[in-house]
Amino acid sequence: MIIKLNDTPYEVEEGTSLLAFLGKLEIKKEGVAVAVNYQVIPKTQWESTILAGGQDLMLIHAVSGG
User: Fold this and answer.
1) In this predicted model, what pLDDT tens digit does every residue of 54-63 receive, in sequence order?
2) Pairing of β 8-11 and β 32-36
3) I want to staple 46 with a disulfide (CB 3.0 to 4.6 A). Which of 19, 30, 42, 61 is the partner?
4) Long-range contact list for 26-35, CB < 8 A, 24+ apart?
5) β-strand pairing of 2-5 with 56-61
6) How far is CA 15 from the centre of its chain?
């Protein structure tokens, strides 16, 4: 199935969790937030959130500044 992460399509297997998908992309949990179809998913739910075809994911990196 196909999902999009920041408008880039990715092929993922059915039953893939959000945590597993991000792990395959080597994205660490620290300093990022993820929204699925514009709904932010708490990090505590990444493992239990199963991806579905056609979903739009948005990865947001925290940035510090002054």
Assistant:
1) 999 999 988 7
2) unpaired
3) 19
4) 27/59, 31/61, 31/62, 32/59, 32/60, 32/61, 32/62, 33/59, 33/60, 33/62, 34/58, 34/59, 34/60, 35/60
5) parallel
6) 14
What is the C-alpha to C-alpha distance for residues 45 and 50, in angstroms, rounded to an integer? 10
In the three-class reduction of DSSP (H, G, I as helix; E, B as strand; rest coil), residue 40 is classed as strand
User: Which structure tokens are listed for 41?
Assistant: 């998913």
In angstroms, the first-to-last Cα distance of the chain is: 42
Cβ pair 21, 28 in contact under 8 A? no
Query: Residues 6 or more apart from 29 whose CB is under 8 A from it?
Result: 22, 43, 46
DSSP state of 66: -
Query: CB neighbours (10 Å) of residue 18?
Result: 21
